[in-house]
Amino acid sequence: MIKLIIDDKEVEAEEGWTILEAAKQAGIRIPTLCSHESLRPAGACRVCTVEIATNGTKSLTTACDYPVEAGLKVSTTSEKVIEARRLAVELLLAQRPHSSRLQELARKLGVKEPRFVLAEQECILCQLCVRTCRELVDVEAITFVAQGKDRDVAEPTVVHSLDKCIGCDACAYVCPTESITVTDIGDTRTINTPSGKLEFKLKQCQVCGKYWAPEKQLDYIIEKWHLEPELFATCPDCRD
Amino acid sequence: MDRVVFSSWGGNIVDNRQKTAGYTPVENLEFPLEHNGHRVRAFMSWRGLVVIDAKINVADMAHTYLKEVQKLSCGECSVGYLGIRVMLDTLTRIRDEKGTKEDIALLRWLGNSIKANTKCDFCALALTPVLDSLKYYESEYTKSGAAKGRGAKPVYLTRITAPCIEACPAHQDAPGYIELISNRRYEEALALIRQTNCLPGTMGRACFAFCEENCTRGDIDKPISIRALKRVPADYEVSTALEPEAKAKKAGGDKVAVIGAGPAGLAASYNLALKGYRVTIYDEQPSVGGMAWVGIPAFRLPRNVLGREVDIIKKLGIDFRLNTRVGKDITLEQLLKHGFKAVFIATGAHAGRKLGIEVEGGGVVDGVEFLRDVNMGQKVAVKRRVIIVGGGNVAIDCARTCLRLGFKEVTILYRRSRAEMPAREEEIQAAEAEGVKIHYLAAPVKALTEGGKVNGVECIRMKLGEPDDSGRRRPIPIEGSEFTVGTDMIIPAIGEKPDLSLIEGKSIDTTKWGTIVVDAPTGQTSLPGVFAGGDCVSGPATLVEAIAAGNKAARGIDRYLKSGRVTPPEEQVVEDWLHDVALNHQRDGNIVAKRERQSPKQLPVAKRKRGFAEVEQCLSLEMAAKEAERCLRCYRVMLLAVDGRK
């Protein structure tokens, strides 16, 4: 066990834990946005910012991806921390003012109307969809495209690959800003993404006739788990 | 205007603005204030702001600088990416005379806040000169347009680099492909690598990786495994049977002859073919790859890896004439007469230096020759004991090869100590793990024979004296310390030199070390239209230096054939100008958590001696992503405000 200090309180944590995990265990709440307990941290949104001190040096960092160290001193409530969190949320809200999730975060952190104007972007690049698709769905249909030296990238963005996407809608489920949406109409599922629209044919239930899941997703599951295709001839509701 | 008016370089503030005499000088500027007909008026970079010309519009310069920074702000974190955008918008308003006092306050607050809390170091450190200008040149941001207009508008020159990029002779964009690997965009990573390195899989295995020695991460825990990461997209292309997208421009350009199909020749040919030149490449060997093929053993570089990469280059329509020695089977004059508008000489350094202990009747075999024989599938006599003389990679490769061939006792003699050994540390460790013995501070004096056969070597102990020209401490023999070691074979591997018989009697200048003289930025020799690069110019060096020379010569040849001029392009001028700026030095970086370096798995030692199976394995995609995420993205933007050329 590693002992560290969070907000003047001694906290025990296991080797390999992040500050966020240690704080949670100790009942200390840190606001988050791009973090999810089933996914590897990204450090993208900067909402979980905390202040750390090691060997006399103080620095801001994100709780979600900073590993615990013995003797580390963490503040989750210092003025600097609150200001940094507010800036992160203010910037995100300036870019996506209509997101209810961001509005709620802003309210909690006391951020009022953003002082800056940014061209509205639905996607705030939190990469929750990218990580979900890669780590939980195990498909890797979504990748992040960053700006860089000599790279012809106008703006960083996330890109869905139609070839790889199985239409499962997990990305839409985790998206905090409704930047990815899914609609099922008749036998077609449409996924709207920042990089365009993807369409999937839905499987019809042999019993009730309802269109219940993308065929591509079912094919993927059948192949991955070596299942009998007949298993998916009927929807879950009509199975015994 | 030669005095520096203001400097915050490295965090040391020198302010001469109010002075009329007794100016404080600025020390350790690391770049000359004048270069190639340009004069610096001001300079902005992560180390600070330097103003030489008091009339420079600092706010306008900060705007230009931040625009470059914004293009590199990756988007991986909200504060860096969005924050820089807001700052740039605000600076634009100020520049367009629409800024308010609040804007300036906001800029300062934003700059400091972003600096304190970004995911990587890039945006944080890049903001330094902007913040310095806001602190020390606030009035520049509020001046009226008329006052700002004074002084001619400067020419801005930009240089973007990184400690790893700068350390790499070929200036490969390591942070760029590492970022693409962390985002699992392997095909793009590979395409990016190929822009400066036509042999990614080869170099992902056999590169000296100067980049890693200069990696900022090395100051925190361990450097990024850049070489191993380069291999990942190259192997991914093979394992997923992807076809590379190398498409040559429609051929029809001038004919160019390349002499030598080693890394330098291949790199030049690849780049020239992509530009549409019709390239013919000559090599005396039946194989392509030069030293990479004949010199590097298969356990470090499997032949199918290099072979496949050569095939990709071949597909660009390059005409390969193997088993053809220029200077013997065809002459340089004949090439020039046959319609080749330019020639690139890249014949390498394949002649082993003599140790002076050679004996009649064999038993002493030169290192490069030995490796060439083994690598070309020739049968070599396997003895019980062998002594290899030298401390470079050739010596280590010979030793590890001997073990695999069945030599029982393999010993290296090196006249300096371990610290001076030029071979790569990983290679030395691998050799030791495999059972190679290394005797340091010992040199051979003469070979001992019995019945015409080598049966030992007389050695002398050495001590280290003062450093020599190479910076390494000179070995000095200790009188009376002679001793004898038994051996059945001696392999001197003490360096190679070029064989320049091809240019004998031509008006091509050479050095006293037997290498060809070229104009460094372009690769042009003293004979117009003839360029040279690689080991035949540098003396025995690394694969990546050869690739760099090939790339450079291709640019030089292209410029020469298009414009008849061989002057270096502006990019090169800025690069040379700012070459000495220490890229690792930082001001106020944030705390970075230690993260374990991911290193490739190695074949167990017990399995290595059974043959020439590749020792180092590829990083898994998972490990590669983890390793790539350790990169601190130390891109450095440097902006020079200069007068136009005089």
Class inferred from helices and paired strands of chain A: alpha+beta
Order of helices and strands of chain A: EEHEEEHHHEEHEEEEH
Tally of alpha and pi helices of chain B: 25
What's the quaternary structure here? heterodimer
Question: How many helix segments of chain A?
Answer: 6
DSSP, total strands of chain B: 22
CATH class of the largest domain in chain B: Mainly Alpha
Beta-strand residue fraction of chain A: 15-25%
- Rounded to an integer in angstroms, the radius of gyration calculated over CA atoms of chain B is 28 Å
Describe this structure in words.
The complex is a heterodimer of chains A (240) and B (646). With 240 residues, chain A is of the alpha+beta class. Chain A has 2 domains: 2-109, Ubiquitin-like (UB roll) (Roll), CATH 3.10.20.740; 128-238, no CATH class. Chain A is 25% helix and 24% strand. Chain A contains 6 helices and 11 strands. Chain A has helices spanning 19-25, 79-95, 100-109, 128-137, 170-174, 215-225, and strands spanning 2-6, 9-13, 49-54, 57-62, 73-75, 142-145, 157-160, 181-185, 188-193, 196-204, 211-214. In chain A, strands 2-1-5-3-4 form a 5-stranded mixed β-sheet, with helices on both faces. In chain A, strands 8-9-10-11 form a 4-stranded antiparallel β-sheet. The longest helix of chain A has 17 residues, at 79-95. The radius of gyration of chain A is 21 Å and the shape is globular. The model of chain A has no long low-confidence stretch (mean pLDDT 94). With 646 residues, chain B is α/β, with parallel strands linked by helices. Chain B has 4 domains: 6-162 and 637-642, de novo design (two linked rop proteins); 167-245 and 615-628, no CATH class; 255-350 and 506-569, FAD/NAD(P)-binding domain; 353-497, FAD/NAD(P)-binding domain (3-Layer(bba) Sandwich). Chain B is built from 25 helices and 22 strands. In chain B, strands 1, 2, 3, 4, 5, 6 and 22 form a 7-stranded antiparallel β-sheet that branches. In chain B, helix 9 crosses helix 25 (621-628). Chain B is globular, with a radius of gyration of 28 Å. Classes of the chains: A alpha+beta (240), B alpha/beta (646). The A-B interface holds A 42-46, 49, 52, 54, 57, 59-62, 65-67, 69, 80, 83-84, 87-88, 91-92, 94-95, 115-118, 124-125, 134, 140, 143-151, 155-157 and B 71-79, 81-83, 85-86, 89, 106, 110, 113, 116-117, 119, 160, 173, 175-176, 179, 183-185, 192, 195, 590-591, 593, 595, 635.
